[in-house]
Amino acid sequence: SSPKAQRITALEHRRGSGGTSESLRWRQNPLWAARVCLPVVYIRFPQDCFYPPPQQISMFLSPPVDFLDCGRGAPVRMECNNPSDFRIEADGVVYAARSLQRSPQHALVLLVKAIDGTTQQQWTTQVRMEPPALSSHVPPAGNTDLMEISFPSRRNSQLKRMKRDWVIPPINVPENSRGPFPQELVRIRSDHDKSRALRYSVTGPGADQPPTGIFIIDPISGELSVNKPLDREHISNFHLRAHAVDLNGNQVENPIDIVINVIDMNDNRPEFTHQIWNGTVPEGSKPGTFVMTVTSVDKDDPKTANGMLRYKILSQTPESPTSNMFTINNKTGGIITVAAGLDREKVPQYTLIIQATDMEGNPMYGLSNTATAVIRITDVNDNPPEFTAEMFSGEVRENRVNVIVANLTVTDKDQPNTPAWNAVYKITGGDSTGRFSVPTDPTTNEGLVTVVKPIDYETSRTFVLTVEAKNEVPLARGIHYPHLSTATVSIRVMDENESPYFEPNPKLIKLEEGLMPESALTIFTAQDPDRFMRQKITYSKLSDPANWLRIDPNTGRITTIATLDRESSYVKNNLYNATFMGLDDGKPPASGTGTLQIYLLDINDNAPKVFPQEAEICEKPEPNAINITAVDGDLNPNAGPFAFELAHRPFDVRRNWTITRISGDHAQVGLKIGFLESGIYEIPIIITDSGNLPMSNTSYLRVKVCQCDINGDCTDQQHIMAAGLGTGAIIAILLCIIILLILVLLFVVWMKRRDKERQAKQLLIDPEDDVRDNILKYDEEGGGEEDQDYDLSQLQQPDTLEPDAIKPVGIRRLDERPLHPEPQYPMRSAAPHPGDIGDFINEGLKAADNDPTAPPYDSLLVFDYEGSGSTAGSLSSLNSSSSGGDQDYDYLNDWGPRFRKLADMYGGCDD
């Protein structure tokens, strides 16, 4: 070995004396299951393999080790002399093969050999491992073995090139160190400390910047120490700057940068991003089918084994059909199937316990955690629908539509309410006319055999259908429909009483109009579709707008009861429609209707007429003529062309007017003379049609001759005469209106005078008598029952009426005269002649008959009361003042029919 050696540890770089062996000190990590160590390795390099700055070789039990091959380029294989306790992998990772329990009094020496794979050259080194009780991996304070970092020398001469600053290698400090603290890391030294006193300091995060107080430096000795445990997951490295100043605070050296890396320790377990993972895989999937991927994270350094995770499946529930239905990629966490036999109908779901372990899955040193993966087996159509029976039956009445006659039930093991479970039914035989369909009940998945077209019992009494059931989606590959996916449906048709039907319907017949009543037209009968029932059909009329026809209820013979007229308003386009009903005697009875259409042929039964019937013409034609048209209710050839001529009477028609034919339907009427006095004239025009037996008719054209303005239009004065009145007639009407007004005024004056005379007239009856008669006019049409609504209290003596019995104003009849205070008649000294009574009554009667305000029906007429103080005496025969009580009332017959009843009651014989 060379006399010069470099000592490199996992915590720091140290410069020291060489040796013939390496020392590895044990440390106990409380997070590991086995005893591991942090190496403190003393390595002596060959002379030809040392290059400044020193190269780093790290040797751990778990992190990888980089072996310096001195640039040989060939692969190096490492072996140890104790393979039962230790092993060295090809990537340089050293593992403890088992739990080591070393005695604190003895050290363990491990011989490590490096072999060049090409030249077979070998290098051998010894490693001595001591328990931590014997020594510490950190020298005590003030230890002269601490690595020194010197400030680069500075030259004052500007003629010489300055030496480049040294590149200080990073200082490695493990996290979670147990101390003791402060723990020295490195010594800072300046060459000027030999000539004068210096003070050392460090700045940066972790020193004088947050987080402060982690690193401290002895200002005199320059020893840099860590003051507390570090956490790589919080801060992975620190960048500090070292300073050297004299006692006056003057800087004597340029600051140097110090990088402190926090070495990761396996102090964090893997954490799954989800505690429960859900995945799906179709049933029947082949091995190797991807299911899902689970992931976990580790806060440790992923570049070291502390953060390298490995996955595995701990358990599977249920273990059917095998316990290893799935596998997991130990690096990516992808879960795939490894066995066939996934069947949702048997195992719908699997639960896997997944473990993630760091240290690349090392079960002895790695930390682990678990999560649950729930894998649901999704359904595929691997089970076809199967009918629960081979034969189904049903029945339906004939002529029924949209009724369910049978329910077809199936079973399907697939997941309900999915396309692989939903059944679709198809009729494959027995329904050539398409009278049935089989929709699916979405709830029960049953097939509903439904009638979609009417079925005639007389044609088909039974149906035998073949129905096939399939799913909405095709079956999975390799699966075929079984025999039970087809069923037979037997349907029996039941007979019903069907309605009779008329054939043809509608029935059209043609005949000439004008057919006389009681003429036979046709026989319109109905047929009964129930051939297996003996039923009788009776006929009746449903619709006959003009009431022209009659039908025999037994035979269906139709005859006329009136003359058929094509020109009737009930005939549209020469067609007359009538509807008849046929009713059978079934139980229940059924009926059918039929329409009879009568096409009426035209005959010449209508005479032509002139149109328009009124026209205007000026007194002086310049020229002025009237165009007229002949209209005929008949059709050609019984209508036009028409012949026009003026009638011979009156004689002045042909003298004043002329008529000229323009076309077959039109003619022109004009004045023959140069002037005709204004007025209304009726011109008789004879029009003859062109029928086989022509018909003529004299139509009157009403012509108003008027004075015209310059535009040829009648003036306003003449428009007043358009109602058909001449100048003389208008004057006569005005005179009549004036005379009528004069008569009304005279009548009012006469009535006022009459009232005055009546007030001055003496009463003709005895004051003690109280008689009032109702004069009823029996020869007039009155108001019905209202004529008898009389107030009988008018026949009583007003003096004897109680106050409560007096009828209030609010309940008087509307046709009653208003109530006036009772007039006080002067007392008469003696009874007048009986003729005075007749004069009084006649005068009152005339006044009532001539009263323009009297109601148009019989009513109670109140005359002057002949009561107390009247000299007329009583009209009652019971209280008559005549001697003997006998009085001749025959003279009442002379007063007219209104008093004949009184003459019959009091005149003549006793009865």
Automatic annotation (TrEMBL):
Residue ranges, annotated region (Disordered): 1-23, 780-801, 868-887
Example of a GO biological process term: neural tube formation
Family matches, as Pfam families: CADH_Y-type_LIR (PF01049), Cadherin (PF00028), Cadherin_pro (PF08758)
Organism name: Takifugu rubripes (Japanese pufferfish)
UniProt superkingdom: Eukaryota
Regions crossing the membrane: 720-751
SUPFAM superfamilies for this protein: Cadherin-like
Keyword Transmembrane: yes
Key words of the record: Calcium, Cell adhesion, Cell junction, Cell membrane, Cleavage on pair of basic residues, Glycoprotein, Membrane, Metal-binding, Repeat, Signal, Transmembrane, Transmembrane helix
Protein name: Cadherin 2
GO molecular function terms noted in the UniProt entry: beta-catenin binding; cadherin binding; calcium ion binding
Topology class, membrane: Single-pass type I membrane protein
Keyword set includes Glycoprotein: yes
